C-alpha cells in the first residue's frame, strides 16, 4: 500500500487528504494549525505533530501550502527525515520561479519532484474532482497515479520540466480571475445603475455568453455572502504570479495588474479570508 503524507490541510488540502484516506491509501497529515488536521483522524488518517515525523515513512508527500516560501520552509525541515525513494508532489500554486526553486530543493535532497498544481476549489477538492496539471519524469508517473486518481477526475501531463505544471496553472487561473473580476464589475455596475443584477444573469442565461462559474460567483455577490471556496488572499497571490509571468514572457501585465489591485484592495478591507467573490467590495463606493 502506498504511504502518502499531506502537508497542509487548509481549504484544498483537507479535501485532498480525505479522499486519499477514503481511497484506502495509508495517509498521514500535518498542518501548522493542528486543529485543522485532527478531524481527518476520523477517516483513518494519522495526524503528525511536525513535518519531519509526518514524512518519515512516506512513499509520496503532497504539499498544499500557501506559497513557495511556506512550502520551502516546511520541506527544508521535513526532507532530511525522508526515506530513500520519496516522491514529492508539489500541488500549491507557487509560480514558475517558485517551482524551479522547490525543484532545486528536491534535487539537493535527492528526491523525485512532480510539479502538480490542481485546478478547482473547495467543492471539487472535497469531491475528488480536481484536475491535476502535472509535469514530471516519465519514470515516476505510474507511482503517483494512485494519488492523482484519488484526488482528481483527470490528470493533464504537460511535460517533464519542473514549472510546466505551474505555467499551465497560471494560464488557467488568469482566466478564472478574469471571470471573477468581470463578474464583480458587472454586478456592481448593475446595482449602481439601479438594476437588479438578476436581470443581467437572466439575460445571459443558457446563451453563448453564459458561464456557470460566473453565475455562481454573481449569486454570492448578490447575497453578499462569501464562504471561502477559493480565498481572496489566494487570488491576490495568484494574480501577482500571473502578472509576473506576463512580464517575463514579454507581454503586457496591465490588465492583470489592475485585477491584482482590486483583489488587494478588497483584502486590505478585511476580506482576505473570504471567498474571492468578495472582490466586489473593491468596485463599490468606499
Structural write-up:
The protein has 286 residues and is α/β, with parallel strands linked by helices. 50% of the residues lie in helices and 14% in strands. The chain is built from eleven helices and nine strands. The chain has helices at 13-22, 51-55, 68-78, 95-108, 122-127, 138-151, 164-192, 197-204, 212-223, 232-248, 254-271, and strands at 3-7, 26-30, 46-47, 60-63, 87-90, 112-115, 118-119, 130-135, 152-159. It has a six-stranded parallel β-sheet, sandwiched between helices. Strand 5 (87-90), helix 4 (95-108) and strand 6 (112-115) form a beta-alpha-beta unit.
Structural class: alpha/beta
For the secondary structure, the number of strands is: 9
Average of pLDDT: 97
Distance between the termini: 56 Å
Question: In what range is the share of β-strand residues?
Answer: 5-15%
Largest sheet data = 6 strands, parallel
Helix content: 40-55%
List the helices and strands and how they pair.
Layout: E1 3-7, H1 13-22, E2 26-30, E3 46-47, H2 51-55, E4 60-63, H3 68-78, E5 87-90, H4 95-108, E6 112-115, E7 118-119, H5 122-127, E8 130-135, H6 138-151, E9 152-159, H7 164-192, H8 197-204, H9 212-223, H10 232-248, H11 254-271
Parallel strand pairs: 1-2, 1-4, 2-3, 4-5, 5-6, 8-9
Antiparallel strand pairs: 7-8
Helix pairs in contact: 3-4, 7-9, 7-10, 7-11, 10-11
Amino acid at each position: 500500500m502506498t504511504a502518502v503524507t499531506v502537508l497542509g490541510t487548509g481549504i484544498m488540502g483537507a479535501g485532498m487528504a480525505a479522499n486519499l484516506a477514503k481511497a484506502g491509501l495509508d495517509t498521514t497529515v500535518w498542518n501548522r494549525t493542528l486543529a485543522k488536521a485532527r478531524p481527518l483522524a476520523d477517516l483513518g488518517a494519522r495526524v503528525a505533530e511536525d513535518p519531519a515525523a509526518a514524512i518519515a515513512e512516506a512513499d509520496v508527500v503532497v504539499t498544499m501550502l500557501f506559497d513557495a516560501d511556506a512550502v520551502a520552509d516546511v520541506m527544508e525541515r521535513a526532507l532530511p527525515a525522508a526515506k530513500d525513494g520519496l516522491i514529492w508532489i508539489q500541488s500549491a500554486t507557487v509560480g514558475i520561479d517558485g517551482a524551479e526553486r522547490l525543484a532545486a530543493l528536491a534535487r539537493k535532497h535527492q528526491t523525485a519532484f512532480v510539479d502538480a498544481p490542481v485546478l478547482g476549489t473547495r467543492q471539487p477538492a472535497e469531491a475528488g474532482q480536481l484536475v491535476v496539471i502535472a509535469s514530471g519524469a516519465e519514470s515516476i508517473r505510474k507511482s503517483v497515479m494512485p494519488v492523482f486518481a484519488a484526488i482528481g477526475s483527470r490528470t493533464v501531463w504537460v511535460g517533464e520540466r519542473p514549472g510546466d505544471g505551474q505555467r499551465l496553472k497560471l494560464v488557467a487561473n488568469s482566466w478564472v480571475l478574469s471571470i471573477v473580476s468581470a463578474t464583480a464589475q458587472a454586478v456592481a455596475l448593475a446595482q449602481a445603475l439601479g438594476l437588479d443584477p438578476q436581470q443581467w444573469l437572466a439575460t445571459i442565461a443558457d446563451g453563448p455568453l453564459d458561464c456557470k462559474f460566473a453565475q455562481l460567483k454573481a449569486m454570492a455577490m448578490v447575497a453578499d455572502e462569501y464562504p471561502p471556496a477559493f480565498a481572496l488572499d489566494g487570488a491576490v497571490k495568484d494574480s501577482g504570479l500571473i502578472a509576473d509571468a506576463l512580464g517575463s514572457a514579454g507581454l503586457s501585465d496591465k490588465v492583470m495588474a489592475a485585477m491584482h489591485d482590486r483583489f488587494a484592495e478588497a483584502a486590505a478591507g478585511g476580506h482576505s479570508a473570504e471567498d474571492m467573490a468578495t472582490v466586489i467590495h473593491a468596485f463599490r463606493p468606499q
